[in-house]
Amino acid sequence: MSVTAGRPLRAVSLVVPMFNEERSLTHFLDVARDALGRHVADWEVVLVDDASTDGTAAAAGARAADEPRIRVVRHERNRGLGGALKSGFSAASKEWVLYSDCDLPWDLDEAGRVFRAAELTGADVVSGYRHDRTGEGPLRTIYSFLYNGLVQALFRFPIRDVNFSCKLIRRSFLDGLPLESEGSFIDAELLVRLRNRGALIQQVGLDYFPRTRGVSTLSSPRTILRILGDLARLAPALRAERRRFAR
Length: 247
Ligand SMILES: Nc1nc2c(ncn2[C@@H]2O[C@H](COP(=O)(O)OP(=O)(O)OP(=O)(O)O)[C@@H](O)[C@H]2O)c(=O)[nH]1
Ligand SMILES: [Mg+2]
Fold this sequence. Notes:
Layout: E1 11-18, H1 25-39, E2 42-49, H2 56-66, E3 70-74, H3 81-91, E4 96-100, H4 111-121, E5 125-130, H5 138-155, E6 166-170, H6 171-174, H7 186-196, E7 201-206, H8 221-246
Parallel strand pairs: 1-2, 1-4, 2-3, 5-7
Antiparallel strand pairs: 4-6, 5-6
Helix pairs in contact: 7-8
The structure holds guanosine-5'-triphosphate and magnesium ion.
């Protein structure tokens, strides 16, 4: 692959948070292996099983036994999306970390475009956004719109789709990055802290496919309340951090 700026991404860790994904996992890994094989020279998949209660652990273990590039990190108790991502980031060993969900909300073959955006622009972070998110249903579309607006206003940050699970991050920016959220505020905290530290962030539009396998677990009122709690708790520190790094 030749590029006009930067250099082709050579090594990528794909980090995948999972809770009760036995019905999605096999298909996800088949798609991921093909896509990564096409677009990067050196890859691994880090599956984070957040104390699933179905057959996820067994299915993940079986695939890892067959394919040394697939690794499994297991939590003894359910921590939430933030807890899982932090474990996955710590376990990831490659130069770039791509985070995505197990229910394939975007075609992983599009990772080629995501990698290319980093190569062309020299970005440290590429964050995907949904061209059209109305497939989530009207209520969640409204929640997403309000949440994105809140994060944009509070942190003066023109990010289009905070919670979409397509984020490519240069590993050196993750090393030593303090991340506190254990729940779904992690996406906002992660992006804001990276921006505060001067990471160059590019955004790439993607087609969005609502879940077709397994059950939805992150759209509950409990998840939303946890996001708002973390937002209230962490916003002052995140805003102060921005001013500190700007000096
Ligand atoms: N670590 C962790 N991950 C979870 C938890 N619940 C869901 N996930 C994972 O987070 C990703 C997104 O979860 P989804 O249930 O698809 O949430 P969503 O994308 O907001 O909603 P739908 O796509 O409509 O189901 C998937 O890979 C899940 O397996 C959890 O309690 N802990
Ligand atoms: Mg989903």
